[in-house]
Amino acid sequence: MTRHGAVGGAQPDSLAVRPRRSSGSAGERSSGPRLVGRRWLAAAVVSAILVTVVVWALIAAMTPTTARLVVWDHGEEEVAFARELAVGETFRLEHTHSVTRRTVVETFSVQDEVTIAIEELWFDEPGPNLPAGPEPLGDGTTTFLQEDGAFRVLHHGHPIGTLPLMVGGPDVDHTLVFPDGQQVHLLDVVRRGERVEVMVGDRRG
Description:
Strand order of the largest sheet: 8-9-5-4-3-11-12
Number of strands: 13
Helix content: 10-25%
Largest sheet: 7 strands, antiparallel
C-alpha cells in the first residue's frame, strides 16, 4: 500500500501551496501619500506662523517706543505744552546766564516712558552756579572737559526723573530745542516767574 501523501496521492496540509499575503489593500496603500501630504501641510502652516511671529517681533523691535513729554505749569495746574519723543531721543534746554550773559545749554534724554536723564552741560564762560570741575553724581562723578574754548560737563545719562525750573524773563529766555528743529520758548506757554516741571509721561492729569 502506498502511504497517504505519496506521488499521485493527496498532498499533506504542510506542503499545500498557500496564496501570498497582500501587502495591503488599495485603500491602505493610498492612505500613505495622503498622510505624508497632511504632515507637510501642517509643517508648512507652522513654519508660516513662526515666520510671521518673527517678522512682527522684528518690526516691533525696530519701531521706537515713544513717550509724551510735557511742560507742567504748577501755577495753572495744567499742561502748558506737550509733544511726542522717542525713548532714547535727546532734547536741549537753552538759556542765557543771568551774570555772564552767555548761552548755557543742557542736554537731556528720554530714558524711558517716565524718566528724563541728563546727558551734559555746555557753557563757554565760567559763572555762578556753573561747575568748575568734576562733581559727585550718584555713585560716581561727572566728567569735566575743556574743548575749543568751551566747557562740557558729561553726566553720562544720569536719571533725574523730571526737570523742575522757574521760568526766567526775556533776558534769560528758557527755550526747549528738539531734534526736529522745533523750539519752544517757555515764555510763550507760561508766565514769567512760573514754576514748571518738564517730564515724560503726564503723571499729573
